[in-house]
């Protein structure tokens, strides 16, 4: 039997085993809830945000391609917090899937209000050496800050095959912006050696115990989202399938309340609408609730619950595709959306794979509405950003204990 045929059989076998494993491996009975700011009853649901700064992040010299950025606000416990507000991570190289692709990073300096020079933080050679296996390509970094202020990175890596044969590698910060491989996430319960065709894309949802829920997705033959629980140390606790649909991927999570969450997903079907699943028991059980009214051309989306309680979603529209980037907001249940155009490009342009986070305006800015930071792929050549600030006069949200 040819090598390609053997690989095909192995991957088909992995589809069945991964699907069975994800159904078998469920969340524990006692679940920590999401961290959701308690919005003051007289606070205004602000949806009016203006761009106060935008541009391209600095690229490593001589590198022509970049994609799939992730943002994380530096917590107060992090050694760089006094001078740096947030960090961006992305993959860059000669092209996607090239052997020279590495994970790049840049920090945003508070005083200069500008991005620092980029640095390489992860490459396939060190990942392969730490895991004891050959890694052919890496991509899609996702960052998370734990309760102690330490950064974690979750990176997609492949051995044989393309992205469909990928795994998610967990790295932790040993010193500021220096990362060490911890392990490959054990996502397949029945046969851990077949931790294949699982990828990561969107930011984790913080939990009350200091851990987080990391959204991932399975992609080989069928496509669906899953939720991985991490404890305060970043160790995996459980994995739960969040949709029974077989054509949606790259879930992005928001919490309406500590126990009521939504997962919005990229739609890979002819429907071309943002897919939606919900849980009302802090992720123990999920159910599909159809699609949003927002269209989706099979492109990654980003959702965020603002501290004011407003939902914000960055996405590309079906019909136009990735040359247009939209920002939609919703202030009520059931969800209804108001949409504005952030970028209206020409055919064949690309402004894709958005990430949204909130970042305080200063190192001790607990009395002002946080800024919203958006990063996205710019023409597959660089990573762009926009810093958005509320125009509304609103009381800040109160932190929920």
How would you explain this protein's 3D organization?
This protein has 401 residues and is mainly β. It has one domain (3-27, 40-390): Neuraminidase. The chain is 7% helix and 46% strand. The strands form 6 sheets. Strands 2, 3, 4, 5 and 6 form a 5-stranded antiparallel sheet that branches. Strands 11, 12, 13, 14 and 15 form a 5-stranded antiparallel sheet that branches. Strands 1-26-25-24 form a 4-stranded antiparallel sheet, with no helix packed on it. The termini are far apart. Mean pLDDT is 88; it is low at 1-18, 20-27, 189-194 and 394-401.
Would you summarize the structure shown here?
This protein is mainly β. The chain has two helices and 26 strands. The protein has helices spanning 3-24, 124-131, and strands at residues 49-56, 65-73, 84-93, 102-109, 114-115, 119-123, 137-145, 151-158, 166-175, 178-184, 198-200, 205-206, 212-220, 222-230, 236-241, 248-255, 261-267, 273-279, 287-295, 302-305, 311-315, 324-330, 338-344, 351-359, 371-378, 382-390.
Keywords for this entry:
disordered N terminus; mainly beta; single chain; 401 residues; globular; 2 helices; Neuraminidase
Tell me the distance between the termini.
60 Å
- How many domains would you count in the coordinates? 1
Briefly note the CATH topology name: Neuraminidase
Beta-strand segment tally: 26
Q: What is the global morphology?
A: globular
Number of helices: 2
CATH architecture group name: 6 Propeller
